[in-house]
């Protein structure tokens, strides 16, 4: 379906454009090629992780002590912080050395540790998903399912972090809708590829994710996105034979003034 191509196109909110950039090929056998600007962006992300890790780590340790966390708990926190800091320092060195294949392997190996570390502010998580996405675009350029499967855990954690911030009353992050769209598209690619039979059970994660996209669009007043999401959901429900659910999605938006405009735009893609 037309909207699925979003996962290959949404590489970075801060993508650079303009003149031809100098490129550096990976020094190992992985075959990554990064522009100088990309390389500098990668270094910035890893260095910022270290900066935020120190700032948040110090304040978290102070909070833990003030609230009676025992020595074992403090030791575990510090141990994880030190470990991820060492990973980020290694990422910096691998980037400088042009060992992009080793860099990718390290990020994938340490993903769970990185994402729960003190340096994982929402912005750092989003920036790191850009790093991973750019590398996956090269590694899995000919395999859309593998691309989706490998970027999904990073994107999903970004959504979780934003949901936690919303729950704490910090408002909706400006990239929330885009991250939900990525996750929904990635689930769709994976479940479309894996499903031998077309039924709602085999598309469970896809349908849930697209409903979340639609709900967030409605909540944010993004009418065009809401209509597009509901039309897309209708198509998915038709695909798995749930015509009543498909009709319900269309009925929810067909009377909106922008409906025909969006429908025609999607049909033209």
Number of strands: 2
H/I helix tally:
12
User: Ends: how far apart?
Assistant: 9 Å
**Overall pLDDT score:** 85
Record the SSE blueprint:
Elements: H1 6-9, E1 23-25, E2 33-35, H2 36-66, H3 71-96, H4 100-109, H5 111-115, H6 122-139, H7 144-167, H8 176-194, H9 204-220, H10 223-239, H11 243-253, H12 259-268
List keywords for this structure.
single chain; 269 residues; mainly alpha; two-stranded antiparallel sheet; 12 helices; 2 strands; 71% helix; 2% strand; disordered N terminus
Q: Quick recap of the structure?
A:
This protein has 269 residues and is mainly alpha-helical. The protein is 71% helix and 2% strand.
Outline the structure in words.
The chain is mainly alpha-helical and 269 residues long. A two-stranded antiparallel ribbon has the order 1-2. Helix 7 packs antiparallel against helix 8 and helix 10 runs antiparallel to helix 11.
């Amino acid at each position: 379906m037309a909207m699925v191509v979003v996962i290959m196109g949404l590489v970075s909110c801060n993508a650079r454009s303009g003149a031809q950039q100098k490129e550096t090929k990976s020094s190992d056998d992985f075959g990554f090629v990064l522009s100088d600007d990309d390389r500098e962006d990668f270094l910035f992300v890893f260095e910022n992780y270290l900066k935020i890790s120190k700032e948040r780590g110090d304040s978290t340790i102070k909070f833990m002590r003030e609230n009676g966390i025992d020595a074992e708990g403090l030791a575990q926190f510090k141990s994880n912080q030190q470990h991820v800091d060492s990973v980020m320092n290694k990422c910096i060195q691998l980037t400088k050395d042009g060992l992009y294949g080793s860099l990718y392997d390290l990020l994938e190996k340490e993903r769970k540790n990185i994402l729960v570390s003190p340096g994982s502010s929402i912005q750092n998580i989003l920036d790191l998903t850009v790093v991973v996405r750019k590398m996956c675009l090269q590694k899995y350029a000919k395999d859309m399912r593998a691309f989706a499967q490998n970027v999904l855990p990073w994107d999903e954690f970004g959504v979780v972090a934003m949901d936690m911030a919303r729950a704490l009353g910090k408002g909706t992050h400006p990239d929330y809708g885009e991250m939900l769209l990525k996750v929904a598209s990635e689930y769709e690619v994976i479940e479309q590829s894996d499903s031998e039979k077309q039924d709602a059970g085999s598309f469970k994660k896809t349908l849930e994710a697209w409903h979340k996209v639609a709900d967030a669009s409605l909540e944010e007043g993004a009418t065009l996105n809401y209509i597009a999401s509901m039309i897309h959901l209708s198509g998915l429900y038709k695909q798995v034979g749930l015509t009543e659910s498909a009709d319900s999605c269309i009925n929810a938006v067909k009377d909106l003034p922008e409906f025909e405009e969006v429908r025609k735009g999607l049909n033209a893609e």
